[in-house]
Write a structure and sequence with these properties.
By secondary structure, this protein is an alpha+beta fold. The chain has 3 helices and 10 strands; from the N terminus they run H-E-H-E-E-E-E-E-E-E-E-H-E. The protein folds into 2 domains: about 5-70, Ribosomal Protein S8, Chain: A, domain 1, CATH 3.30.1370.30; about 75-129, Dna Ligase, domain 1 (2-Layer Sandwich).
Length: about 130
C-alpha cells in the first residue's frame, strides 16, 4: 500500500527540481482539495482535471518567481503510520508568513489560519514554505 499524498508531494518537489512547467498525478478529491489550497495561497499557477472516471488525472502548473521555484520546501507532517492532529485552541501555531500548514478539518481542507478563524482543529497534512 502506498501513500498517494506523499506521491503527490514527491511529484511536485521533483517537478520543481527538474524545472518543469507542469506535473500530473492520478485524481482524487482529497488531492484536488489540497492543490486548490496551494493554488489559492499562490504556490501553484493553476490546476486542471483531465480525463474521465477511472482515468482522471490532475495536472498542476508549477509557479516560479523569476527562475526560482515558488516552493522552497514542502513536507508531509501526518503519515499513514503516525497521524498528527492539531486542536482548535492549540497555542503552537506558526507565525504568519513563515510557513503554511494545511489541515484536513470537518469543514474541508484549509490552511491553519483559516481553521483558527473558524475555531476548527484537524489533521495536519503538510507544511509548505
Amino acid at each position: 500500500m502506498t501513500d498517494s499524498i506523499s506521491q503527490l508531494i514527491s511529484a511536485i518537489k521533483n517537478g520543481y527540481l527538474a524545472g518543469k512547467k507542469q506535473v500530473s498525478c492520478p485524481y482524487s478529491k482529497f488531492k484536488e482539495a489540497i492543490l486548490k489550497v496551494l493554488a489559492k495561497e499562490d504556490f501553484l499557477e493553476k490546476l486542471e482535471v483531465k480525463g474521465e472516471k477511472a482515468k482522471k488525472e490532475i495536472v498542476c502548473f508549477l509557479k516560479y518567481k523569476g527562475k526560482q521555484p515558488a516552493v522552497e520546501e514542502i513536507r508531509m507532517i501526518s503519515k499513514p503510520g503516525l497521524r498528527v492532529y492539531q486542536k482548535a485552541d492549540d497555542k503552537t501555531r506558526l507565525k504568519r508568513g513563515q510557513k503554511i500548514r494545511i489541515l484536513s478539518t470537518s469543514k474541508g481542507v484549509m490552511t491553519e489560519s483559516e481553521a483558527f478563524k473558524k475555531n476548527l482543529g484537524g489533521e495536519v497534512i503538510l507544511e509548505i514554505y
